[in-house]
Amino acid sequence: MNKKLFLLPLITLLATFCLFAQQADPVAIKINGTSILRSELERAYKKSNELRAGAEKESIADFVKSYVDFRLNVEEAKAQRLDTTMSYKRDLSAARVETSYKYMQDTVYENDYLLKIYERMRQDVEINHILLPFESEAVLPADTLVLYNKARDLYERLSKNGFAAEGYDKSLPTSVILDYNRKNGYMGWVTPFMFSAKVEDAIYTLPMNKISEPVRASDGYHIVQVLNRRPAIGTVDVEQVLFNFSHIPPDKHQIDSVGKVAWREYNNIHSANDFQSLCDEFSHVMEMGDKGCHFGVVGLDSRISPTFINAAFNLEKEGDISEPVWSDYGYHIIRLLKKIPLPPYSDMRNAIRNRVLKSDKSQEMTAEKRSKMAAALNFVLNRDVYNKLNNIANDVSPRDSAFFDRVKNRNEVLFSFDNGKEQYNVGNFLQYIQLRQSLIEKKSDDAPDMSVFTEAIKTNLSTDVLREFFNAYFSRSLTDYYYLSLADREPEYKQQLDEISEGLLSFAVMNKNVWERSVTDEKGLSEYFNKNKHKYTLSGTKYRGLIIHAKNEKALETAEALAKKGKKRDALILNLRNTLNKDSVQVLMEPGTWVKGENKYVDNKIFGGAKAKEQWGYPFFLVTGEFISQPQDYTDVRSAVEPDYQDQLEKDWRMYLHNKYKVEVDNGVLETIK
User: What is the pTM of this model?
Assistant: First the structure.
């Protein structure tokens, strides 16, 4: 086949396509050789008019004038390398974070997950619970087999005989529970966040009276049984009078003696006033101040004695008072202030989210988003490389320095994104583990708080430790790369960033060359005033001069002598600097133009006002100058000159840009934009 004959229609087809594309979206403006397409100009024009109504809407012709000026500013900002300054980079970085938020969050899945937790919070569950703990903090997979077999054997016995027959009755101990996960036997009523995520899942998914198979968590194997369910009872706000033990734990004699006092006082309570009198006495003795005997809000998950919790929730009406309740701390007499039902989800969402992020549920909540992000970035895990690390973790925990000594494949790629474009090797992963470990280590007293890292997921099994480290490192790497490459995948995001960048550059170049200059360019302000002196007048007669504060009488005398020579104000200021202030500051100077009532020192010396308070460190002062009816220089009317000078600078700046850069406008294209 003749290749030339084949290529000819193809070239013709491509040329026709390109011509059609150009006709569909022609070039509207060219600035310094850079084309601005009709679609881009039209989008900017419509966005500019979005908030304008009726007659306020800008015509396309007027818009193009300001738009061209804006683009010229951007062009000049780049020419002046303002896009390399730290302030620009800082502002753009902050804008990038804010703009990227909606692309980085999976609010739908997150909200579904938080709703699931809230629905659980609407239900209290009564349970039995047993933990068979790991015997050490560093647990290897081989160690779990023996413990699992024990848990399995216990599960079989519990399923056959029940908890009571195995010695787990319904008695509630009085000791303070520091970790609900480690309490065995009858637990009573529980609510979310009291247990680790896996155990909680079992509690809220088990059928009634069903005993769970062993659930492996970070601290061992858990077995739970659901006894009952009820609508959540919320929380209670209570007061207490505490008859405390002097020693903890107390001996039998102390328990008996303190108990007698508590019951005696309880039996003397016949009214609300009686309890209040007891409360006032307790507050005075315990130095409770304004707090009084208010204990606070108590929930099922409060880390306090279960006997206290039960007594508080058994109070039915506001004002009800409990019998003395025994705990490790002493005997409590509790009064119910109010019962607080579970608030609506809308009020609790943020609080639930914060609790999730600080718990081992955090990975679950973000799992769906990570999965979508990983798919979008073509994530590939090198399983062979991970398995090598996992084989080492079978024998030694990644928290142990010996783990690092056994890793020999540090340069191998562990995972990658975008078909290998972004790679993370084993060495990178090990550096992350070492950083985590160094931050978790107990810090010295003088170390900053920010150097401490708290693990939300506390894992003991060595292979689980490796997996948790990997998941955390992968999540961080995934989020970082997704964020940095977001503009390549989200056209809308890129467009927003480009607009923000151009806005920052336009502002920066105008601020540098016009706005700041209109305030700080003393020479320019003076020249502008001298050329346009006829435009400015004073509103009446003013005193124009100089206030001089002297450190001592000798300096004051010298200043007075120099002032009497009749030199103009600027010359006098220069003379004072070169004489009195040459080696050290002997006088402070304040030039200005005033009317009566504007300055206390001028009022005192010129207008016969009250004595002015001395300047600290410079107790002597004089005022020198003259009355004027017309401004002598721009400082006399600075507030009027500065905006006028700025207007002139803006006109000059626009002319400078239009002379420097070539601007081509296709009016035919503009006419098609409405």
Answer: 0.67
